[in-house]
Amino acid sequence: MSEAGDSRRNSIELIGAKAGTAMPAEMRQALNLRGLVPTSIENFSKQELRAYQQLMSKSTNLEKYEFLAGLRCLNVNLFFRLLLNHFRDIVPLIYTPTVGEACLSYSHIYPFLYPFRMSVGLFITLDDTDCIDTVIENYRRSMPEPIDPEITVITDGSRILGLGDLGVNGMGIPIGKLQLYTAAAGLNPSRTLPIVLDFGTNNERYLNDPLYLGTRERRPDDKRFYEAAGRVISALHYAFPGLLIQFEDFSTEHALGLLDQWRKRTMCFNDDIQGTGCVILAGFISAVEQAGIPPQTQRILFFGAGAAASGVAKQLVDYFVIEHKIPEQQAKAMFWFVDSRGLITTNRGDTLPKHKDVFARHDNGDTQCRSIEEAIEYVKPTALIGLSTVHNAFTEKILTRMSDLNQQGRPIVFPLSNPETKAECTFEEAMRCTGNRVLFASGTAFPEYTIPETCEVCVPGQGNNMFAFPAIGLGSVLCKPTYITDSMIFAVAKALVNSRNEEEKACGELYPRIERIRDVSAELAAAFVTQAVSEGLVKEKHWVDVVNANMPENSLPGRVDGLFSRRVLGEVKTLMWLPAASVEQYIVEAITTINPDDT
Ligand code: NAI
């Protein structure tokens, strides 16, 4: 057979293998499969039914994770059909909380998840960074399809979820997260690239684990880290112009450092910092709108003053400054912080790190509060935000007091610490103690609460990053801004507030329902693109023309409002990837991707 013939047959085999039991008769004949495979020719729905039954037959979440990882390798189309049709059930199996469990033992299960030579992403060691171009070339060659990635999620495994330094085992996170980009916002799965920077680990458990698959060395110092990470980012930027880089689960200092270094040099963002801030800001804006007291009179008490609290507080201050035209110093004065030593003041007798000093009170005179209870009596807050990792810190007494203090309006209570075992209170507790008046958002997913007297079912708000990062990813990949600005993220937050439908608003929900994630992501991406064009950072002529010719009604020049036109939304929607609905459609799409000349 000629080379062209070989390549054609290889393509048919590849496409056929992925169609599985749905492979049509002609294809079976062309591949001489008579007698080699079961006779029944199925449709995609039947395949999906079988896959779902198999998934449900597994007894632990980790087994389900392993099954889904295998399915993703065998049949991408089926995997995403299953995921999209059972979104609420399957997301916790491919991402938090199950992915955490999988990462903890990744080195032990990895060879059973994927065939050894299958390229699931890039594992880049410090030594590899000296020949990074070869690594990238190897990646290109390993791809069955001649297309460049358009998004990468990159981690060094140093701060995986709340689990600490997992080294190379952190690879589960970029893989899982990119699956969510595809499911929630329609990024093409064959154009996603998970990367782990395998720069060592300081975790003794893994350094001593004979089955650990990563570099068995301690992590490098900051200088070496930034040099090596910089080499990787520059090489990616050069090899794949227009690639979006999402930083994920780096230790706080490196997360801030990398973002600072790269945010204006390439298209990148950090989900832990910007995505989280965006989603919590959106929930907070919705809450303030419903609280029944003027925004200027909000008094916000943070319990916990670590990395997350300072990031979130900064976003909220920006909101009061931008939206309500409150001068920055005045906006800052609306915030109080409690850490493990009590209310943070300039005269409590300790030296404060920079991120705490920014918000330290100096108007407290001789008053010092040593506990959250004392701080509540002193501040009389309208909003209580928990980012402390202290489980059950918002006791019944505290929640009841929040209710009493806010009889004129509705109290805002956001217990944001993750996972559930660290949450400051549950939705049920917050509802019961506030006479069901609380405006609530949590980090973890709590069950709905039925009010016993009325049987009304209330849905808790969850500050889930999944509302923001897929849309930021989609918007960036479509219009390719030179870099991503804070205002683009702010526009996404505003669009998230606006995306709630009438029913969700009537029920007082702070976020849209997760089942509508694809529609919501499309709207948020349209807002992102519109904002990016209005900032003059988009070079793609098509998007510049479409946005400028269809400016959204009601938008005011210079204002970041998260609005977009129907036309832009329509275009975004048509460009979102969906798994093929039928085998015929699948084959046409697969042939077009593998051999564009065959069309
Ligand atoms: P961190 O360790 O930097 O900060 C924790 C803060 O809580 C520190 O200021 C500490 O002094 C304070 N704290 C600890 N024990 C305390 C006590 N007994 N009383 C008063 N204050 C106490 O941690 P980080 O990164 O700020 O994260 C905090 C929590 O926020 C974590 O549980 C994390 O999962 C969660 N988080 C949730 C997000 C969401 O989207 N819901 C996003 C980011 C973080």
Could you characterize the architecture of this molecule?
- By secondary structure, the chain is of the alpha/beta class.
- 49% of the residues lie in helices and 9% in strands.
- It contains 27 helices and 14 strands.
- A seven-stranded mixed β-sheet has the order 8-7-6-9-10-11-14, sandwiched between helices. Strands 1-3-2-4-5 form a five-stranded parallel β-sheet, with helices on both faces.
- Helix 1 runs antiparallel to helix 27, helix 14 packs across helix 15 and helix 24 crosses helix 25 (541-549).
- The longest helix is centred in the middle third of the chain and has 20 residues, at 271-290.
- It is globular.
- The mean pLDDT is 93.
- 1,4-dihydronicotinamide adenine dinucleotide binds next to helix 15 and strand 7.
- Residues 162, 276, 304-309, 338-340, 387-390, 416-418, 422, 443, 463 line the site of 1,4-dihydronicotinamide adenine dinucleotide (NAI).
Largest sheet: 7 strands, mixed
Helicity range of the residues?
Answer: 40-55%
Ligand kinds: 1,4-dihydronicotinamide adenine dinucleotide
Q: Beta fraction of the residues? A: 5-15%
Mean pLDDT metric: 93
In DSSP terms, counting alpha (H) and pi (I) runs of 4 or more, how many helices?
A: 27
Indicate the low-confidence ranges by residue numbers.
none
Strand order of the biggest β-sheet = 8-7-6-9-10-11-14
Total number of strands: 14
In whole angstroms, how far apart are the ends?
22 Å
State Rg: 25 Å
Structural class based on helices, strands and sheet pairing? alpha/beta
Gross morphology is globular
Question: Which oligomeric state applies?
Answer: single chain
